[in-house]
Amino acid sequence: MKKGIKRVLCLVCALLMLVFAMTACGGKKDKDAGASKAPTSSAGDVIAIKPSIDPESEWVDFDPYATISDSIKGQTVRFATWIDHTTTEGAVPLANFEADTGLKVELYTVKQVGYVSALMTKMASGDIPDVFVSNEADGCFPVTFQIAAPINKVSTVNLKEPIWDQTMLATGTVNGDVYLVNTIGTPWSGSNMVFYNKPLFEENGFKTPKEYYEEGTWTWDTLLKCAKDIKALGPDYKGVGLESDILTDSLGTSFIKYDYKTNLFSSGINDKALLEGYQWYADAKEQGLMDGSRETFKTNKCGLFIRGPYGLKSTGYFMDMNPEDVGFTYLPSMEEGQIGRISSIYRMYGIIDKAPNADAAGYFIRYWLDPDNYDLNNTFLTIEAGQFYYELINRTADEKYFCFDKPVATLIGEDVKVFWSPVKSASSAGVKTALDSVSNKVDQAVAAANKLVQDKVAADKLYYK
Length: 465
Known about the structure:
Layout: H1 3-13, E1 76-81, H2 91-101, E2 104-109, H3 115-124, E3 131-134, E4 148-149, H4 166-171, E5 173-174, E6 177-178, E7 193-197, H5 198-202, H6 209-215, H7 220-231, E8 238-241, H8 244-249, E9 256-259, E10 264-267, H9 272-286, H10 294-298, E11 302-307, E12 326-329, E13 342-344, E14 348-352, H11 358-368, H12 383-393, E15 400-402, H13 405-410, H14 417-424, H15 431-437, H16 439-463
Parallel strand pairs: 1-2, 8-11, 13-15
Antiparallel strand pairs: 3-14, 4-14, 5-6, 7-11, 7-12, 9-10
């Protein structure tokens, strides 16, 4: 059967799927711990989570683009990105932005590796785009903070509007100014999850990760049981593809920690949870279960792959697979009955410092992050995948954990492997010694991150009086 026909059948089958509101790191018994449901229509469409609006409030019929000044209409917002969004779900808002607002948008291509340093070079020459994305590695906070303008000082952005995710705005606030934003229901966010290869489980009679989750026994140990089941199929089969930071994120720790309430970075080297997480990882690796990858998953030779929501997207990791073969569920708890943090991706958007079209840029960010401007049914692998995406992201910032190891490592001219590799390669008994061996590097990186924030705050006090 052709892939297109299968996709249609998959969508039809998904019409009757129930939407569960669960915490991301626990079993069925934990699922009602304060989360709300992602709504679905009777037709089974993907419907974005929307902010709750008082029917008597000023926001009921609010049109954010109704009062765009004639002085900025016709301006072109330049969006600095490494992605050709004309081939992603972003093609829809890009195509409609001018007609809906009277403003234009241009993709300003910058390589992902060295994103901020490349932008800073261009800015120094006077070539300044308007909008940036803060995503990962050297393109994430705090590195991107160097090029950011305080959005709350841009007159066209009303951060009191209900669409803005206030918990995420709090994480992007430094010294009282908001530099990074995202919305409730954003198509551009996400947290890590477990993808599993449905045929390998179902055709061999193995209990799936989702079944473990629904019965309340989805833990890191039952995840290893799943990996062992798949490995037992033969020498060509792989267990699980897992980055160690996702594991420790779910325990609420990492090498570099950030407290957005104080705007201070600190070392996590002495955290008990970091030690325990890496000891667990070492034990699993010694059992030969950490040998999976995205590529072996795509060729139906790997049981589980743990990564972010790009795997749910129709243009994502698994776009060449039969969507019926891709299962997904939440990260497990370390132990049964435990509720962990949600290992999340810190994808935020901002206006570039001294952007030539800052007012127009404010409208573009609002438009780009509004799920109403997307064709959500064609954004995800399946209707079920889209519904799960909105279940997954519908959490406050304090329920999530953001790891800044990668960007902070770059501030001392290092790859994050300088922290991770010695510890990942250690035996369970040697993890503590390995952690101690990188402590000085972590301290150097923490100092560099705190200095970057302090220097930027001082500079902005002078410029944005």
